[in-house]
Amino acid sequence: METLMAYVIGTMFGSAVYMLLRRSIVKLVIGLMILSNAANLLIFTVAGLVRGAPPLITEGLLEPATAITDPLPQALVLTAIVISFGVLSFSVVLIHRAYEVVGTDDLDKMKDTDT
Amino acid sequence: MSHLVVIPILIPLLAAALSIVSWRSVSLQRWIAIIATGALLLVSIALLQLTREHGFVVMHMGDWAAPFGITIVTDLLSAIMVVLTGIIGFSIAIYSLATTPEGHERFGYYPLMHRLLAGVAGSFLTGDIFNLYVWFEVMLLSSFALLTLGGERAQMEGAIKYVALNLFSSALLLSAIGLVYATTGTLNMADLGQKLAQVEHHGMVNTLAMMFIVAFGIKAAAFPLFFWLPASYHTPLVGISALFAGLLTKVGVYCLYRFFTLIFTGDVDYTHTILLWGAGVTMLSGGLGAAAQSEFRRILSFHIVSQIGYMILGLALYTPLAIVGGVFYIMHHIIVKTNLFLVSGLVYRLLGSYDLKELGGVYRHRPGVALLFLIPALSLAGVPPLSGFFAKFIIIRAGIEVSAWTITGIALLVGLLTLYSMIKIWVEVFWKTVPENVNTDRLTGAKPDKGLWLLLLPIVGLAACTLFIGLSGQPIYELADAAAEQLLNPALYIEAVLGTQP
C-alpha cells in the first residue's frame, strides 16, 4: 500500500509542478490545489498506514498492547486542509479579480511589474 | 513571569479582533492601532529584559510538557526579533495614520496589519515546527490581502507572482515537516535537535535539510527564487511596502538561523556550503538587479535581496564571529530598510511619483528630508560611523578569518554596488533640479500639508536608532554576541525546553 501511495504522491507533485509552469493563471491555481493535496497525502502516508487499529488503550492498561494508528499526523492533515482551503479560496478570488483588471489570463502578458 | 512570552502574540490578535468589531469606526481603529503596537513594543522590551536575565523564557501551552505540547520559547535571538517587530509595527502604525487612503482603512487595513504582526511574532516565538507553519500561513494570508488592497493592475500582477511562489514554498515546508515527523517522531524543535543527530540515514537528513533551505530560501527571497519580491514589493501602499520590507523576509532568515544552528548541525560541511554559495549569488543578483532600475521602491526591493545575502552569509560561515555579525546585520537591516521605504513614501507625498526621472530638487527645497534619506542610505551602503558599517565589518572580518576570499570579495563588491544605487537615488531625487511639468506646491511648502509630521516622526525615530547603533554600538554588539553564543550552544536551548541534559 505504501509503495502505491508513494507513486500516487509522486505523480501528484509532478503534475502540480507541470501545471504551475503553464502560462494560464487558472492552471496555476489548479497546480497549487494539487500541490497542497499532495503535501497532505504525503504527511498522511509517511507516518505509516495502519488498518483497523484505532488509537485507543484498553481499560486497565497504561499503553496500547498492539500497534495503533498514530493520530497526530491526522490532526496535522486536518489543520493543513483547513489552511489550504482558506488560502485557495483567496487564490481563486485573486485570479478572478486579476482577470477582470488585467483582461487576460496569460502570465506572459502580465509583465508590467517585471524588470 | 513566563506568561510574558505569549503576550506579544496575544496583543496583535486581540487588536485585530477589536478592530474588526469596530469595523464602522475608522477613528477607533486608528486609536487601537497606535495603542496596540505601542503596547507590543513595550511588552517586547520587557520580554528582552527578562530573556537577558534568565537566558531563556519557556512556556508550555496548556501545561503539556515538551515535547508533547506546543512550546512557546524565546532565546535572545527571538527576543531581539520581537523587539524589532514592535519597533517596526509602531512606526508603521504612526505612518499609516497620514498615508492610508480612506478606502483602504474602510476595507480592513488595520485588522490585517495586526494579523500580520501576530503571524510574525508567532513565527519568532514558537518552538514547534508545525506551529511555525501555522504562523507562517497567518502571516502570508494577511500579507496577500494587504498586497492586493486597492486592486490596481500592478498590484494584481505582483500579487499573482507573490502568492504562487509563497504557496509553493508553504507546500514544500509542509511536506518537509511531515517527513521530519516520519523520521524522528517529534515536532518540537529542541527535541529534534537531539533526535535528528541519532538518525542513521544521513541521506534522508540531508534531503530534509535541503527542503528546508529551499522553503525558507523562497520566503527569505534568496537566490534562485527571489524574483517574486522585486515584482511585488513596489506595488502596494508605501506603509505596507515598508512593513513587508522590514519584517517578512527576515522571518525566513530567522528560521534559517534557528534550523541551521539548532536542528541541522550534523553535516555542516554539506549544508552550510550550499548556504554559503546561495548567499554569494543572492548578494550579487540583488546588487546587479538594483543597478538596472530607475524606480525608487524597485531599487530598494532589489537591495532587500542583496542584504538577505549578507545575513545568510553570516550563518553560512558558521564561526562565532560570523553569527554575531549576522545577528547584528539583521538588527541594523530591519530598521534601515524600513526607514528607506518610509522616506520613499515621503518623497512621493512631496512630488507625487516614485520614478526617478520625475523627481528632483528635494535637497534645494527641503535639506532636512535629504539628510533623513542620507542617514539610512549611507548606513545601508556601509559608510562609517553608521550601523551598516559595523554590521558589514564584522561579517567581512569573519570571512577573512576563515580565508573565504571569493565570498568576502563578493561581499565587498556588493557594498560598492549598494553605494552606487544609493548615490544614483541621491543624484536623481535630491540633487538635480526639479523636472518641468512637475507640481512642486507641496515640495516648496506653497500648499501646506498638515499630516506631514506624522510621516516625519517615524522616519526621525528610526534614523535615531540607526545613529544609536552606529555611534554607541557596544551594548548592541554585546547583545548580538550573547545571542550568537546561545545559538552556537544548542544544548542550552534543548535543556531549557526539555528540562534535561541532552
SSE topology:
The complex is a heterodimer of chains A (115) and B (502).
Chain A: H1 2-20, H2 25-46, H3 71-102
Chain B: H1 7-21, H2 26-54, E1 57-60, E2 71-74, H3 76-99, H4 102-106, H5 109-125, H6 129-148, H7 153-184, H8 189-195, H9 202-220, H10 228-232, H11 238-263, H12 268-291, H13 296-317, H14 320-351, H15 362-365, H16 367-381, H17 387-401, H18 405-431, H19 441-444, H20 452-471, H21 474-488, H22 490-498
Antiparallel strand pairs in B: 1-2
Helix pairs in contact in B: 1-2, 1-5, 2-3, 3-5, 3-11, 3-14, 3-20, 5-6, 5-11, 6-7, 6-11, 7-9, 8-22, 9-11, 11-13, 11-14, 12-13, 12-18, 13-14, 13-17, 13-18, 14-16, 14-17, 14-20, 14-21, 16-18, 16-20, 17-18, 17-20
Structure, described:
- The complex is a heterodimer of chains A (115) and B (502).
- The longest helix of chain A has 32 residues, at 71-102.
- Chain A is elongated and about 65 Å long.
- Chain A has three helices and no strands.
- Chain A is mainly alpha-helical.
- Helix content of chain A is 63%, strand content 0%.
- By secondary structure, chain B is mainly α.
- Chain B has a domain at 267-471.
- Helices cover 77% and strands 2% of the residues of chain B.
- Chain B has a two-stranded antiparallel sheet with strand order 1-2.
- The radius of gyration of chain B is 22 Å and the shape is globular.
- The A-B interface holds A 20, 25, 28, 32, 35-36, 38-40, 42-43, 46-48, 72-73, 76, 79-80, 83, 86-87, 90-91, 94-95, 97-98, 101-102, 107, 110-115 and B 130, 133-134, 137, 140-141, 144-145, 148, 151-154, 156-161, 163-164, 167-168, 170-172, 174-175, 177-179, 181-182, 227, 230-232, 234-235, 289, 292-293, 298.
